[in-house]
Write a structure and sequence with these properties.
By secondary structure, the protein is mainly α. The chain has 6 helices and no strands. Helix 3 packs antiparallel against helix 4. The longest helix has 32 residues. It is globular. The protein binds fe (ii) ion (2 copies).
Length: 172
């Protein structure tokens, strides 16, 4: 092996050590978080223990609030900035559904008896709302994102999303 090859090989090795792990696509992160919240909501509806419901509700809040707020900043605001009516309607619809989910979450938190039929009903409504929202978001908003943003831009959006989530405070 000549000197030039040796140097090139060493350079490649060094690059592999210092370069960060491959960054993710925003849509993969969003999908993971959707799955997580949907499965927590399913458990919340099915549970018949007050303690378990309390813990699940705390987990749902901690997952849902940063997700929706960071998603608005990172994804919806970009989609609202695109040309054409369709993308704008998708963005506004997303905002309205987030608002409805946040109100429903607050209503759920006000119900004192967690094993009551009222709590079960409210949990069901929140679950149905989120299921509907996720389905439409993954179909419509994601189509807007795929059509208008490159792989590289989606990696940057992912980094921005993760950073934005850390700044969101979760109300009690
Ligand atoms: Fe989402
Ligand atoms: Fe959303």
């Amino acid at each position: 092996m000549n000197l030039k090859n040796t140097i090139e090989k060493a350079g490649k090795k060094l690059h592999a050590v210092i370069s960060p792990a491959p960054a993710g696509d925003i849509l993969d992160t969003l999908r993971r978080e959707h799955d997580q919240v949907q499965s927590l909501l399913e458990k919340l509806v099915k549970s018949d223990s007050a303690g378990e419901r309390r813990d699940l509700l705390t987990e749902i809040k901690a997952a849902l609030i940063p997700h929706t707020k960071a998603e608005e900043k990172t994804v919806y605001d970009r989609v609202l900035g695109l040309k054409g009516n369709k993308a704008k309607v998708d963005g506004h619809e997303g905002y309205f559904e987030h608002e409805a989910a946040s109100r429903m979450l607050a209503n759920l938190g006000k119900i004192e008896r967690m094993t009551s039929s009222e709590f079960t009903a409210a949990a069901k409504v929140l679950k149905e709302l989120i299921d509907h929202h996720v389905e439409e978001e993954e179909r419509n908003i994601w189509a807007d994102v795929k059509e208008n943003f490159s792989d590289r831009q989606r990696v940057l959006m992912n980094e921005e999303f993760e950073a934005a989530k850390k700044r969101i405070k979760i109300p009690h």
